[in-house]
Design goal:
Chain lengths: 391, 300
């Protein structure tokens, strides 16, 4: 009786854990390479985790169809942290100790990524984060990157650099900044304020709003009173659409509107119902694949990703899925070269130069675990309801 | 770009504040109707608003049903959800204490939010405004016609509810339940039916709020929680259980947020609202229009 109960419990556990995994595809006799991923698939950051999960599952399927990695099938184990740092921490530990993965991808948000750094450092497992903060790859005590941690998204400073450079070209000197109160908005705001001096820009207004606010008229009215030449908005979710509509209603003509790279989805242009015309925004290659000239180094990979994502999921891709693509291919690239040896994978990624990804050409070094430069963003303008390369 | 004068700015803050305040007031009225009859705080009130906006988006935009019919259809649908909520989640609880009932409403809010995510996904939905997107300029301020609709619907809801509570038997019976449930059942009022009706009314008002705000702010499945918090603050500010208090509380909250963000600091606008709330509660614990005598009889 007791034995049969135990049997039931054990089999439930086995079924349960198997269910959480992406079904492994049987291929050859060679042992599967296991790669772990922790994304915020549901919860407040689901707009990040959802496309990331879809992307890595699609890529893993493609790789296995093509015969795997040197004959080894690829098995990607995805856990959902629901945006919660505690759950994220547990999931990463589970991947390392129970699933025994070769490397971990994610987490999707900066706070969670920073929270799991001690775990991967202690267990000596390479982590390729899909979150943006520079703090993920910079140990603030030493100023050097953490040994085992890499990240694929561009740091906010690159996006700010791209926006401010464009402003200087347009002869702008007086700006207003707007940001939401999420981690994304707050860290963007920090960089905007910090770098304004370097570009000789004067910030005349610095306004914020909540991520679920219904209306930003008050903030924009205040900005209108200060009459800046340009406005930069740093937020994600529906507020970045609402704010464009408010901006248009207030007839703030003559002020140039810049959005952060979080605006990178055509759905936002559609939702803005005409209010997005003329808005500038820095975007990675995967958002604008078809606009890139054929000579662009990322043209081929970006077109391939865009087409297969649209074919599989019947929805336009967002820039966030591209971070997952970059993370997985970076790990696969290392697995191909050195196999499932954690220390060798780490060393391989750190030395990797000229890796062509969705969000730039990565050149890693012991001092730079992000590996992206100023060319990772192209300035784009909304024209006739679609992106167009800005001059 | 034309410059904007200080008076123009102030007018703009006023308009924005009243519009947002009207929305909060509608959520607050929904809270109060259920509270009055059942003494519970319905934490799923915000979900009614989100469901209203999302259902309307499906009916009007996806299925192309004309505005008026889609509007009625949405209100009926969300009202049905409210009725089901009472029948399936509130009524079946044995020996209900106020706390168990409130916990049940929290559960319902999770279920509704999860169901909304399942049916509509995580992306925001838009609705065309009722009468175009051409802004109206008044004395240096700018108003979207939809803002006027929001304010107009608050007035309509208030007038209809006042008529209902003052002039109809059912409304008077509900007010009797609000004053004293036991006494009401002694004079032959079916309290269970009144509870059912209060959920239906609250859901309907929530749906209306969702429909009219979606063209301004878009709507997604998890918007309800924030609106519930704001609406609840408005209820407490105006006085728990007071119908005029809910309207006053909502409008004051909206105006504080708007003027606070515009004149002082947008980063602290929620803090201003909380400060005023704390201040009011410090001097008048029952809220601006709340009645201490009544709140003493209530269990919660």
């Amino acid at each position: 009786m007791r034995l049969s109960k135990l049997f039931i419990v054990v089999s439930i556990c086995l079924i349960g854990s198997g269910w959480a995994m992406t079904p492994a595809i049987a291929a050859g006799e060679k042992e599967a390479y296991k790669v772990g991923a922790v994304f915020s698939v549901t919860g407040r950051a689901s707009f990040l985790g959802d496309p990331e999960k879809k992307t890595v599952e699609m890529v893993a399927e493609e790789i296995n169809k093509a015969g795997g990695i040197n004959g080894h099938p690829l098995e990607v184990i995805v856990y959902d942290d629901e945006g919660d740092a505690t759950k994220c921490n547990l999931a990463v530990k589970k991947l390392i100790t129970k699933d025994k993965v070769c490397a971990v991808m994610g987490p999707s948000v900066s706070g969670n990524s920073i929270a799991v750094i001690p775990v991967v450092e202690e267990n000596e497992v390479p982590l390729v984060s899909c979150a943006a903060s520079y703090k993920i790859v910079t140990n603030e005590e030493t100023g050097k990157p953490f040994k085992w941690v890499f990240k694929t998204p561009q740091s906010d400073s690159l996006a700010v650099d791209s926006i401010y450079t464009h402003m200087k070209k347009k002869g702008i000197s007086k700006i207003a900044i707007l940001s939401d109160t999420t981690g994304y908005g707050a860290s963007g705001r920090e960089e905007l304020v910090r770098m304004a001096k370097d570009f000789g820009l004067e910030i005349v207004a610095d306004e914020t709003y909540g991520p679920k606010d219904t209306d930003m008229m008050a903030q924009l009215t205040k900005i209108k009173g200060k009459a800046p030449q340009a406005v930069v908005n740093w937020s994600i979710g529906p507020t970045q659409v609402t704010i464009l509509r408010n901006f248009k209603d207030l007839a703030m003509t003559g002020i140039i509107f810049y959005q952060s790279h979080g605006f990178g989805s055509r759905e936002n242009i559609k939702l803005a119902a005409g209010a997005a015309e003329g808005v500038f925004c820095p975007l990675g290659a995967c958002n604008i694949a078809e606009l890139l000239p054929d000579t662009h180094p990322q043209k081929a990979v970006a077109m391939q990703y865009m087409n297969s994502y649209a074919a599989k999921y019947k929805e336009p891709l967002s820039s966030f899925g591209g971070h997952g693509w970059d993370a997985l291919y970076l790990v696969v690239d290392a697995l191909k070269a050195v196999g499932c040896d954690k220390a060798a994978i780490r060393d391989h990624i750190e030395k990797r130069k000229g890796f062509v990804g969705q969000h730039g050409v990565f050149n890693f070094s012991p001092d730079d675990h992000n590996g992206l430069g100023n060319d990772a963003f192209s300035m784009v303008v909304v024209k006739d309801g679609d992106w167009a390369l800005a001059d | 770009m034309e410059q904007i004068s200080l008076s123009g700015q102030l007018l703009q803050y006023l308009i924005t504040g009243i519009t947002i305040g009207s929305l909060y007031a509608m959520v607050a009225i929904g809270f109060n109707i259920i509270y009055d009859v059942t003494e519970i705080i319905n934490f799923a009130q915000g979900e009614f608003v989100a469901l209203g906006g999302l259902t309307m988006a499906s009916l009007n935009v996806t299925l192309g049903i004309p505005l008026v019919f889609a509007f009625c259809g949405t209100v009926v649908f969300v009202t049905l959800i409210g009725l089901l909520m009472d029948r399936l989640a509130i009524r079946p609880i044995r020996q209900p204490s106020v706390v168990t009932l409130i916990i049940a409403t929290i559960a319902v809010s999770f279920i509704l939010r999860g169901a909304a995510m399942y049916f509509w996904g995580k992306d925001p939905y838009d609705l065309p405004p009722f009468s175009g997107r051409t802004p109206i300029n008044i004395l240096g301020g700018v108003i979207q016609p939809q803002y006027l609709w929001v304010i107009a619907f608050l007035v309509i809801v208030v007038v209809l509810l006042s008529f209902f509570f003052d002039r109809t038997i059912a409304g008077k019976a509900m007010r009797a339940c609000a004053d004293n449930t036991d006494a009401a059942s002694l004079v032959g009022i079916n309290v269970n039916r009144m509870v059912l009706m209060s959920f239906a009314l609250s859901a309907a008002i929530g749906a209306v709020a969702g429909i009219i705000i979606t063209p301004i702010s878009l709507m997604e499945y998890d918007r309800g929680a924030m609106l519930a918090v704001k609406g609840f603050s408005a209820v407490i500010l105006g006085g728990l259980g007071s119908f005029p208090g809910a309207i006053l509380g909502g409008l004051i909250l909206g105006l504080i947020e708007s003027f606070g963000a515009g004149l002082i600091s947008s980063g602290y606008k929620d803090a201003f609202a909380l400060l005023v709330l704390l201040g009011v509660l410090f001097f008048k614990p029952s809220g601006i229009l709340g009645n201490v005598e009544i709140s003493k009889i209530k269990r919660f």
